[in-house]
Amino acid sequence: FLRPLFIDGLACSSLCEKDTLYLGKCFTAKPNSQVYSGSWGDLEGVIKCQMEEAPHYDLGNEMEPRKEATAFNKPTKGTSVEKFREMILNHLKARVGDQANLLELAAQVLSIADANKDGHISLPEARSTWALLQLNEFLLALVLQDREHMPKLLGFCGDLYVMEKVPYSPLYGITLPWVIEVWIPAGLRRSMDQWFTPSWPHKAKISIGLLELVEDIFHGNFGSFLMCDVSATTFGYNDRHDLKVIDAHYIVPEVIFQESIRQQRCDVDEDCLYGADCLTSCDLTKHRCTPEVTRPNLAKACEALKDYILRGAPSDIREELEKQLYACIALKGSAEQMEIEHSLILNNLKTLLWKKISHTKDS
């Protein structure tokens, strides 16, 4: 790699000059979103590069982000740090809404921008940070950096960035050759996905982590986010059985989602789907999608956890656990519309699981 003069970051020297940042196995077939295993000196990591993802959305049939080449031309030469701070604040306001703590979040961005910690933000550092700031995963990593659910950002070079490796992923499931897959009944296939999961107390701790993530991104310090793909492949866990988000591509700011979806033309509700799990309804009088999702994050999380946490559950809590999970899955409407019921179910589930494992070494 030859380092362009208009980007910079902590990983640039290792990638382009010292050859101490190695790209290993490629994990994705998408040309615009490349993910590699990698090593950086003594650190194991995951290297991600959003080749052409744009900072705005053009919602076509699949509602994918519009693709445009990253130019690394913002901020322009001569931009002061104060002007850059203002750019960051305006961008964050557009992404997460006018939150009370945006100044704090902007300060975190500026701290990350000073990659070499020399007390100054160079133009290449600023341009690299601005490119990263357009990405959902980078934004979520900032928002959740004091929590345990996001892998740590280790460094970046332009809009290539290195995240902490999550040793166990996906959350559950096995991969089979397609010639075998097509002959397996769906019920048996779901059961097989749970064959090689951790012990039940460890699964309980991981499940609590997912419930806490739902709490953190619903009316958190920096606005609300929607989980639009709550599948096992989105999550993993570490040696301490802390849940980690391994793909935040479809965890999107609610403000951005609502602005985008209401512009989407529709004839049926299914036209108003983003990712696998964010569905709204179609207003047939206007043939436009409504902005409110039909199911809250919590209902989708409980559905993802149901088979996982019920398999091997202790007999003395299994019946109550199953009852609470089904009540959770049945939640409809946005979390704002049913905030009390949402909070009650979430707290009941966490309490039930914690009580069972709090006196064991697994907690």
From TrEMBL:
A cellular component term from Gene Ontology for this protein is: endoplasmic reticulum membrane
| Domain FAM69 N-terminal, residue spans | 3-112
Asked whether the UniProt record includes Metal-binding among its keywords, one would answer: no
Q: Which InterPro entries match?
A: FAM69_kinase_dom, FAM69_N
Coarse class of the protein's main subcellular location: endoplasmic reticulum
Q: Tell me what topology the record assigns in the membrane.
A: Single-pass type II membrane protein
Q: Does the keyword Methyltransferase apply?
A: no
Q: Where in the cell is it found?
A: Endoplasmic reticulum membrane
Keyword set, alphabetical order: Disulfide bond, Endoplasmic reticulum, Membrane, Signal-anchor, Transmembrane, Transmembrane helix
Q: Which family does it belong to?
A: Belongs to the DIPK family.
Q: What is this protein called?
A: Divergent protein kinase domain 1Ab
Q: Which species does the entry assign this protein to?
A: Sphaeramia orbicularis (orbiculate cardinalfish)
- Give the organism's phylogenetic lineage: Eukaryota, Metazoa, Chordata, Craniata, Vertebrata
Identify the gene encoding this protein. Answer: dipk1a
